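Input for the complex:
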Amino acid sequence: MSKVVCFGEIMGRFNPDGFLRIVQGSSFHLSFAGGEANVAVALSNFGQRSSFVTKLPDNDLGVAAMRELRRYGVDVSDIVMGGDRLGLYFVEKGASQRASKVIYDRKHSAVTESVPDDFDWDRIFKDAAWFHFTGITPALSDGLAEIVKDALKAAKAKGLTVSCDINYRAKLWPEQKAGRVMRDLMPYVDVCISNEEDAEKVFGIRASQSDVSKGQISENGYRSVARRLAECFGFNTVAITLRGSLSASDNEWAGILYAGENFFVSPKYTVHLVDRVGGGDSFGGALIYGMINGFPAQKAIDFAVAASCLKQTIEYDFNQVTTDEVWKLVNGDASGRVNR
Amino acid sequence: MSKVVCFGEIMGRFNPDGFLRIVQGSSFHLSFAGGEANVAVALSNFGQRSSFVTKLPDNDLGVAAMRELRRYGVDVSDIVMGGDRLGLYFVEKGASQRASKVIYDRKHSAVTESVPDDFDWDRIFKDAAWFHFTGITPALSDGLAEIVKDALKAAKAKGLTVSCDINYRAKLWPEQKAGRVMRDLMPYVDVCISNEEDAEKVFGIRASQSDVSKGQISENGYRSVARRLAECFGFNTVAITLRGSLSASDNEWAGILYAGENFFVSPKYTVHLVDRVGGGDSFGGALIYGMINGFPAQKAIDFAVAASCLKQTIEYDFNQVTTDEVWKLVNGDASGRVNR
Amino acid sequence: MSKVVCFGEIMGRFNPDGFLRIVQGSSFHLSFAGGEANVAVALSNFGQRSSFVTKLPDNDLGVAAMRELRRYGVDVSDIVMGGDRLGLYFVEKGASQRASKVIYDRKHSAVTESVPDDFDWDRIFKDAAWFHFTGITPALSDGLAEIVKDALKAAKAKGLTVSCDINYRAKLWPEQKAGRVMRDLMPYVDVCISNEEDAEKVFGIRASQSDVSKGQISENGYRSVARRLAECFGFNTVAITLRGSLSASDNEWAGILYAGENFFVSPKYTVHLVDRVGGGDSFGGALIYGMINGFPAQKAIDFAVAASCLKQTIEYDFNQVTTDEVWKLVNGDASGRVNR
Amino acid sequence: MSKVVCFGEIMGRFNPDGFLRIVQGSSFHLSFAGGEANVAVALSNFGQRSSFVTKLPDNDLGVAAMRELRRYGVDVSDIVMGGDRLGLYFVEKGASQRASKVIYDRKHSAVTESVPDDFDWDRIFKDAAWFHFTGITPALSDGLAEIVKDALKAAKAKGLTVSCDINYRAKLWPEQKAGRVMRDLMPYVDVCISNEEDAEKVFGIRASQSDVSKGQISENGYRSVARRLAECFGFNTVAITLRGSLSASDNEWAGILYAGENFFVSPKYTVHLVDRVGGGDSFGGALIYGMINGFPAQKAIDFAVAASCLKQTIEYDFNQVTTDEVWKLVNGDASGRVNR
Amino acid sequence: MSKVVCFGEIMGRFNPDGFLRIVQGSSFHLSFAGGEANVAVALSNFGQRSSFVTKLPDNDLGVAAMRELRRYGVDVSDIVMGGDRLGLYFVEKGASQRASKVIYDRKHSAVTESVPDDFDWDRIFKDAAWFHFTGITPALSDGLAEIVKDALKAAKAKGLTVSCDINYRAKLWPEQKAGRVMRDLMPYVDVCISNEEDAEKVFGIRASQSDVSKGQISENGYRSVARRLAECFGFNTVAITLRGSLSASDNEWAGILYAGENFFVSPKYTVHLVDRVGGGDSFGGALIYGMINGFPAQKAIDFAVAASCLKQTIEYDFNQVTTDEVWKLVNGDASGRVNR
Amino acid sequence: MSKVVCFGEIMGRFNPDGFLRIVQGSSFHLSFAGGEANVAVALSNFGQRSSFVTKLPDNDLGVAAMRELRRYGVDVSDIVMGGDRLGLYFVEKGASQRASKVIYDRKHSAVTESVPDDFDWDRIFKDAAWFHFTGITPALSDGLAEIVKDALKAAKAKGLTVSCDINYRAKLWPEQKAGRVMRDLMPYVDVCISNEEDAEKVFGIRASQSDVSKGQISENGYRSVARRLAECFGFNTVAITLRGSLSASDNEWAGILYAGENFFVSPKYTVHLVDRVGGGDSFGGALIYGMINGFPAQKAIDFAVAASCLKQTIEYDFNQVTTDEVWKLVNGDASGRVNR
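Predicted:
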């Protein structure tokens, strides 16, 4: 089986207990997370061979991050050990009108300060069919943006399919810089994944009839976004996730896929959230899984939306659901009945 | 006060923390649970003398199970110590579209491998007015099915009222075998308790207008089920619980009682679930409590449904509510206002 | 900056884990709480200088309570150390139809048995602009009721604004006694805070069109309550919080302000509760913050209701939100979207 | 089997996690404990029928205390429900040079304020062969001292053997008062249990060659104490536990028995402490077990010292060891080898 | 690098918190453990390629066990999924005179009921240089004893070095049967590992001058045991671990190696135990690591004893130390000084 | 009361549970710690007014650190908010032969990147009598070394007493650089605190008769070290702590004081460690407390060594003992007897 190579940062994620705020916490749970790492784990859990490439500090925290990936069957043999520190982030879980909150402590992390010679893309892409990255990685440092470009060139040279989740993070870079850097990388991308805000923030492509701070989403408004993204950058596939933030406790969740000049719209789920962080990444992982396995477009978007709906009922970034569970939801059983 | 004798298995129940999946868990909470044990505890908490009969391994796990029953005032003097192991089960709590999940590890448990000579029913039924079992017990082994039959014969010989919760478990036996064995035991039963699926799975008696995987329940469809159960097996009372699985987080909950050829329908509650496992058992315990205390039929079904509604807001299998709390809900106060 | 002086009891608050009942608990979280202490912390967190006055036992529990206040920047220099014990209370979190439950173990606490000489109000009110107390404090003992009266006289003599949250607690005193004692204190009060039940229980002033046990609230019915309170006691401002108890999991929350013979009504929020205990106190703290900072009346009530809405998504009594977070909600963003 | 009746207080015991100080704690473990309750549990765990008599508040904390006793098989049918509060105490675990620390919060507890009519000693002593109390109970209130005296009279009238553990607590009463009250009760006592300090503090009977604050104990010095106690009060048996406090982490532990004018000295154990609180009570329980089962004196003291040595390796007040484990230690296997 | 193949059972291991007894526990930590799995993990942590072969149930518990091995880099590709259940065991940590306690619940586990066709030894031994098993595996079932023999034949046919840790478990089989079965397997073994009891229990070869229940060990007495084992079965190397059980808290630990008719004796460490379970396995893993890397005999035994000394300061079965940490101890730094 | 000003870094300190290694941890306890912050807290707990000066990031982690200091009564009004991140460190607790381990993640912390203008020393030293820093602070960055020098100049100009704990950290800077920078700062220092290694590592002043890796300390060897330090740099007082690392579980602990050309030697304690990190800082805090309160030299060193002995029985960096507890140990009661 050919593998999917994911490149980016994996961080330590600290959560205070339950609904405590960070400022109240005395006991924190450590898990590991990162946009591309989440995709690699999702793929591996679905049975798709995947590899995660990064640089980790050669201390117990770096080793623990590497081991956690290995636990899920992700190939870690191309991870480079070195550099100063593991990036960290702190997440507090919101509820009702109180939003979830994220504090990043990821500056100066090993991968952020990595250099082109750390990664031998020809070797890394041996046996690979697909390369995935997100807009977070080039946001971390100018050096990383260059390394991503190196990887993209190597990937295209080897004929890999390339997917990118735009994943704009205002805390990492301003919209203008994001637009400039990302525009430079998009020509190498085949499959573009975006959420209801990214396209506007990064590329200035705005949906009509939508105000995300009001918790309303209209899938119609995003059809034109998808089409324009495809037209601008030549993507063969554009997928957009649509999150309706009814509150920090309940969200609507749906997605649309634009492929071959057709639109495919998923059902819309109302999710009582356990942990929404990583929801978009689980969508990306499931979409890649569907595409690499040749699902028809409707089935691919339905699978990806159902998988990422279920992820949001699961603690921490990694998706822990099986394909059986996803298919059960795709097939309409959202009743949550116990099987015994 | 005459006692209610309950016979079956009590297991160790392991839960991972909060909403973690079993596969994510490193810390598990141990409680104790079992269909008939839950009924015995519910009765004892309501002030009704009850006894639980089983076989437990003579090790710390068996002792802990026995102590937990004793803690709630259940008479444990007829529990037999011996055999190999305590049955275990693992429960993960679902949320939203993700169903709760149960893994049984109860094969070869002490009670499953018990023999007729382990139980002296004449002695056990001294001072008893009622005998309760569920369809889980005969499902555990052919030997247990025989022992249940011995118990039923002794109970009827002593003039006890007999109740049975059909409690079909697909993981324990196929529908066909369940039907054959249970049909053989039903003639001894006076009070039959069923949920919205059992009667169909075990006896092929199907409700009209209902598709449980869609989360819809119609109490009308179950009236005919209750009547047909009573007609087939000569039950003097049939109680059916109706669960509408809106999601793994929110359920509808109601019940109907068929007695003296009349139907009594409870109010329907929408429950934001804390732990739904044991809900049916708490219904059974509350119903027996009502019947043994001579409640009129409407009051009995209202009490049983309200008690089991409240149970589903309580962690672990045992119901921990007082009769005062149940009456408050029966009387219409579902506001959850704090009393202080 | 002039300070707000709050006088009352701070207790140890024990919570069992998650949704466990007190009777199930083996591990309890200790936090600290009390009607007036909660106000002092809320004010200090908003940047308003505040002081808390009480008597605490000179043991580790008293020291821990004092330290916890100091942690939030509350001035503890007028706390008297002495007496026998720290008042305690136990809280279990309700869910759905099961109400939250409070067990008080606060009799004979140090402050309850304090004497007038423990407090030198002239010194305490140095640098103070505002004095706040609640109806809980005079309910604790006759001695405390006297001490409150001493404080009120001193406060008025110094020209402080005085606020009182009526906060009727049936477990502490009967309605009749509450009425008698509180009527004696009201002439010193400028700003009266009440919830939807207090005015009726203590002063016999009843809202029309309201039955709190049904979970319904009508802000119209409370307009007359506010006006009558102001007329009876000469308050210049009356604020009433309105809680609609849909269930123990979900509440409606709103407030009205009567000032200068005008009514100001806040938006109504539906809150998915994390911990509602302390909600009223966080309203009081935010209202005082608004008034001391000269907010116009509409802005004051909007701020207070939004702040206390957010508090109910936070564990334990103390409000842990920032003014930024409150303004975000006041300005209409209730979407709970993550900022990252 | 005749039962042993124990009378006194059972408290809630709060421990912070691990070696944290009380003042550091945010999570506290709740167990239940009390001098006489510990004896009742120890006896029941050894298979000796026992009953615990007290008064408990009719709230969740009182119910939880009662349930915990019932869990261990102690007869709770003579516990009176009523009164205000459950006595509490807080324990922090010392280490090395830092002593363990106890904060009592037991004033005004239900049993402390109980009255003679709460207890019908003739009914309580039905089926009883032995009555046990400690010096803590009369220390709690003058009323309780009277009630103990009533119980003693009734016990002697029924021919019960009476044991008393002197258990002096300086935090509860001064030495002089303890001496006066206890002298009044001693004539009813057959078996006197003391530690290396009690006899001196309460009755002024001092061991030679001993300075407990230096961590040294000399069993020789206590022979005369035992003899003088027996002579003064006519005890037929005197047992003295000897604790050498090497540090808060390691103690020496031994005991002597004086019976029939002969001395019986146990081996001395060096214990690496897990929890020393309740050590003396577990000695008392094991001694009563030995005496009621007719052990020869040497065997009785050896069993009692070994049992209480093992208790100090167990968390919380209740002894959780089996007679098999005690005999193994009595027979010389202190190697701690795993049996597998 | 050639790999070491380990065959046996991996179980779920449940520990109550801290020093609680199993019968007291409500929260249990789940780790994974097994004689041969512990060796595989130890080897992989030291950088030696290793593989673990077993059969695991295809449920979340089996998957979690497999993932935990994978986390440490152990090759899990030859694990067979199927069968009924994951073997479990419960461990409580002893202290001072109270021994640690193990309850096995491993009957009917998937590997215990595996059949010869489950394992294709020719494929499994591809790339392998060494095969390791313990006496626990043939003790689990007659079928497993046969499978082990199959494996041994295949291993010798391929020229692998074979090591066996005798690991006698009285709870699994009687001495006589162990002797008969193990004698049949020993001819295939090159490297025999034993503790101070195994050789006597299984083969009747007894050390002079030793009484393990007294906590004394004499390395002299074991020299003849090692020599006789080698002579009887033709082992080229015999290693014996020597544990002096001073108490459940403190043990002496040493080892001797007999190779080439010479004896090599390690230093003796006194270990303040954190968790001694898995100590012998960590010795085995470190010894194999030394031998496969061609360490001279003295260095090999020193490394193995130091590694397993350190393991006993680490929670749960798996050894988590690095070769650097082992060498530091081998080189004499046992001071436990912090490096910062 | 004049205050003691401490300047340096306060970090978040993450500990895995119990004796788990960092690499095993999933739940981490967050406390706050730093060489000079520990001194400020120790002083405040003893009743000595103290202030801590640093720069903290204006996020929840910075706020939590500030609040924790305030909780202990430390004056935080001169803390500057700003900069990027809170320094972090991870600590795992060693046992027996396994050393405790520290991972620093403190680079780029707010205070490390602070600039001279952040601190107005004239204002900061208002009301101050003493200034304390450690060798850690100038090690963090060249900028900080400059700022320390600014502070020292201002302190001397205002006539403050200056103390410095040399506190060499090999992970922060090489010995040569430490020597150069520290030699430049020493002329401003009055009271020098060192441990058994610092003087050698930083200034090349070596004790005779000592090999710290062997766990042996000889107070004689350090007399000359103290004298030479005083001679070299003109200190009026030199205090040296002596740690004998018997193992990671048990340490010897003592100190010597050189003042007025005389030596004062404390008793030597053997400590069964709970948490040794922060031990030296608690010594420094207690020494300053003694000196500022005019203790005679022998009393000062005895107090400081006893206080820091007790600290090592307490979890986390901050010392939580009272002066009463210290005096009890100074006066010879190391028995750890419970007071009740």
